[in-house]
Design a protein that fits this description.
disordered C terminus, 5-stranded parallel sheet, 5-stranded antiparallel sheet, FAD/NAD(P)-binding domain, 17 strands, 550 residues
Amino acid sequence: MTLDARIPSGPITEKWDRHKFDMKLVNPANKRKYTIIVVGTGLAGASAAASLGELGYNVLNFCIQDSPRRAHSIAAQGGINAAKNYQNDGDSVYRLFYDTVKGGDYRSREANVYRLAQLSVNIIDQCVAQGVPFAREYGGLLDNRSFGGAQVSRTFYARGQTGQQLLLGAYQSLMRQVHEKNVKLFARREMLDVVVVDGKARGIICRNLTTGELERHVGDAVILATGGYGTAYYLSTNAVNSNVTAAWRAHKRGALFANPCYTQIHPTCIPVTGDHQSKLTLMSESLRNDGRVWVPKQKGDTRPPEQIPEDERDYYLERKYPSFGNLVPRDVASRNAKQMADEGRGVGESGLAVYLDFKDAIQRLGVETIKEKYGNLFQMYQKITDEDAYKKPMRIYPAIHYTMGGLWVDYNLMSNLPGLHVLGEANFSDHGANRLGASALMQRRLLRHPVHDRPLPREQHTAEDHHGSCGLRRRRGQRAVADRQTARREGQPRHPRNPPRARAHSLGRRRHGADGSEPEARARGDSEAARRVLARRLGARHARQPESES
């Protein structure tokens, strides 16, 4: 079998633009004739379904949960990368491309990675338009922070719940398309098989988890956005129902798997406490911005961390990697943490942990600043471990988190099985042997057409439509000003469309008389003011015209 990645020819900086131009287009009137099946409602699935619905296709969207809001994308914490260079620290599309390829140990498909970096600059504006509450600086501009594997600040974030906020934005776009009947949503469905007709994916078989019935659905193409296979390991940070069965069943139908050995072990997770656990808990990599990783220099040192003096602590990441410090890539941080434990310098009862200390950051920035940046993470840590990380260091240790391998796809994200497209963590295309922090959300949101939210029809406006209604009021105000200026210029009443009492009700009695009519003195003052404005803007000839008419 020959695998054709269908990578466009030419310089890498021009591949995506050339490919877009060479792609065959579908007439808008013909789009409604096609049905697309999207399996999954996480960031990749919900975004794809909403985008295709926006473009005019008929979309059938399936999720195993009772609501798209329960997709595991909600557990992403740290942030989303974009080469905006808001910090003016030397970031660029090429630097994001270079960092991603280098962080993946040069084992990623470079054409896909450059497209990822190239499109990243558009996603933040779209997310803000959808209402994602990214963190902002004091002056109101979007804030950035650093992440592992990069020496620039390019990560946009919403405290420690960026995945949740991004998923809610995608969910809102999806439900708008459901409301407009472009997307039909099927909750509590598990995909059991891919229907292949004449060698092409043309539908799915699924089970209704509420009734137990088997259902068949037919379409012109199938999109899988069902996540990775991290739960193949005994303990991971993935939800238990992220069970990779959809991708496995597609593989049984002929879709090839690529790089299944590329599994990411996240260095910042709460350590195992016993055999009662079904999963582990991720602590955001963003904590390594201000936290310092260390272990005792002496093997077998069981003293509490506050009793270990500074000169007996080994800040091993800062010592071994001075250029990156605690923000080394995830694979490097995980390997070194395990090495410390293997040497007998691990901490905690099990010895399978290292310290993440915020004492210096609290002394430098203050407790309130740390709470603003990481408050929900500290609260989650205290609920799980019953330890206050403001007073003593966190204990962290590596855990299975993300899978860079997945179903093989070409440049168009289609598998070797024609008609079967694979998005997000379910495919293998963008990260190589290791994923940089905050790149997963970028991949899940970018490789598709953007969705631009519009307000609902006016009779359905709610409190959530505040921004749309503000724009509507602004446009009405601009039209009203133009009408008044035209009326003054032509010597007509200021509000030719409305009766006086309606004007008094809409504009208030401050500018009008008690009966809704304007005082003569006010009208004369407005006429004189109008002549002065016209004299300044349009010249003396226009200013003399009202006098001759009077």
